[in-house]
Amino acid sequence: TIITNDTSILENSSYEYIIIGGGTTALAVANRLSANHSVLVVERGPDLVNNEVVNDPFMFGMPSPCFFQVNLAPQLGSNDTKMIPYTHGSCLGGGSSINSMIGSRPTYAGMSAVEALGNPGWGWNDFLPFMQKSETFHPPNPTQHAEGANYLAAVHGFEGPVGVSFLQPFLAPTFQNAAKNTTHTVFDGTVALSPDMGDGFSGGHYASYYYHIHFNESLQVDRRSSSAWSYLYPQTQQRPGLTVLTGHLVDTIMTSHGTDGNITATGVLVEPISGGTALAFNASREVILSAGVLYSPTILQRSGIGNATFLQSLGIEPVLDLPGVGANFQDQALLINATFPLSPSANITNVTADGVTLLGLVITHPTTIDALGPNGTSAFDSMLRNISTEHALSVGGVITAETLTTQAALIADAYQIDHPLMELFYTPGATMLEIWAQSVLPLSRGTIRINTTNPAADPVADPQYLSAEVDLDVMVAAARRMSSMAVTPPFSDLLTPTALEESGVPPVGATDEEVRQWVLSTYIAGLHGVASNSMMPRELGGVVSPQLLVYGTTNLRIADASIVPLSVFPHTTLGLYGVAEKAADMILQAAEST
Ligand SMILES: Cc1cc2nc3c(=O)[nH]c(=O)nc-3n(C[C@H](O)[C@H](O)[C@H](O)COP(=O)(O)OP(=O)(O)OC[C@H]3O[C@@H](n4cnc5c(N)ncnc54)[C@H](O)[C@@H]3O)c2cc1C
């Protein structure tokens, strides 16, 4: 494999496939295609192969040259609007080189909703083999098992590039036990210990969680399993047909018009990030767009693919009128800052010496019934099935009212087959314990738009967090469970007597309005954005077909978080490796038939 930021050595090279972006999904697709074909990957960020902040999982959250933030458009706050950033990774590995490595998967119910949205072949039974193909799961050793780690072999893969494992050593078992037992009590015994949170059976569960990390035997430490370290760097993954160009950004996709009205992607126009002459690279077979949920729509828009009226307003000549580009954008809202002081007498053993650990050692996924009870569930179901489309339409979040009502009904169906309503996750530190909570299947819809043709500019990103009333209700319910956790033993036994008051989380008896205000002032971006180039029928605002082909094109595909039409991956990465493996499989099948 050639990894370079020097284009002079690439002159006169030709490629069958060009992949835009060298992030999470991109490098997995590149690896599979380049086994038999010539592939060029163009990544804006640097190659950080030896950067310890990236490679050491316990340095998660520290700034590295991969760490970038975009300021979102003003979002709903407790006092009118508030400004919040959206973090993303820009280097080889993309988000997988900076994320918190929680190894979450979609569920049977979630993938059924994706399939029912008009995407045959994307249900759980079809999708699971691709997640398995990407994975080498490391079963818990006897000590980890005794301390609470568990798994089901039947749903995992054991020969794929991405290492997935429990922490070694398995941190803070006392804390993990307390979190599990209190969860059981706080949800009145309705949630149960899961044999494996990735088994697709999504009834109300909690468990010790695994991560996309692997244990390096020679160094005797845990290491991040980024897509770069899984699919690109290892000796076993070297590919003579693969060239990775770093430090360069794709400005536009070059296209030609066919006689049948469809357009064909012929290559990409690339610029060095340091400035300099633009270069064209040609693709003889396909162009695959994998620049992530924020940037893939911007590259389409600069290339004249998007809402024609909007593009004309920026002086861009429309090539393909596709109003769904940049619409349907959604992200989970995340409640953090629930930090409870640890009792001096609490002995939560085996937290690393400086108190740094990974996020979410224990995770809970309650269903609507677990979280809202039977009456609350029926009211919530009715809200979803009678949703107002006015707001989402007015901000451009959906292109037709039917888009939102169809998605809301599918979400309601998913909840009926036990899709999690929310996620609570518990993390220990040296002096405090943290509980975070996120919505899982939000209904608020926003947009990604360019406001300039400058390829180096950030997009105007507007997820419209909590603008759908149902989403705010979920977060209020989640916040109430956070309060209950802090006052219920054995979890509360680990805390100071005044921990809940000190945390600022609303007291157990707070009114709905008080909790709502706290939620609105506290929430931040969940960073699991999806759907800005949704895979769904074109008339609903879809951008790609179930084969991930951009509608109206012969050979332009998208493979990244932007195609996932509903937020069905509680955390996105392991699902995105499934998307990558499935995309590569479809692309290789298409190549075989020509
Ligand atoms: C701080 C943080 C914590 C997270 N925690 C978790 C977690 O614990 N578990 C989990 O599963 N998920 C987590 N996620 C989410 C997950 O990492 C992302 O959803 C995922 O990495 C997105 O993958 P992608 O392939 O869609 O895009 P990315 O991985 O973002 O890749 C896109 C790539 O395209 C490049 N690019 C963009 N524009 C251009 C251009 N014009 N030309 C060339 N290259 C370009 C970018 O530099 C980037 O490298 C987290 C995300 C963040 C930011």
The number of strands is 28
Small ligands present: flavin-adenine dinucleotide
What is the CA-CA span between the terminal residues?
26 Å
Biggest sheet character: 8 strands, mixed
**Oligomeric composition of the shown chains:** single chain
User: Measured on Cα atoms, how large is the radius of gyration?
Assistant: 23 Å
**Any idea of the CATH class of the domain at 136-226 and 332-446 and 459-525?**
Alpha Beta
Low-confidence stretches: none
Helix coverage percent of residues?
Answer: 25-40%
Give average pLDDT, whole number.
Answer: 96
Q: Which term fits the overall shape?
A: globular
Output the structural class: alpha/beta
Number of helices: 16
User: What would you say the CATH architecture of the domain at 136-226 and 332-446 and 459-525 is?
Assistant: 2-Layer Sandwich
User: Beta fraction of the residues?
Assistant: 15-25%
The fourth-level CATH homologous superfamily of the domain at 136-226 and 332-446 and 459-525 is: Glucose Oxidase, domain 3
Q: What is the fold named in CATH at topology level of the domain at 136-226 and 332-446 and 459-525?
A: Glucose Oxidase, domain 3
Active site: 528 (proton donor), 571 (proton acceptor)
Pfam families: GMC_oxred_C, GMC_oxred_N
Cofactor: FAD
Domain Glucose-methanol-choline oxidoreductase N-terminal: 15-332
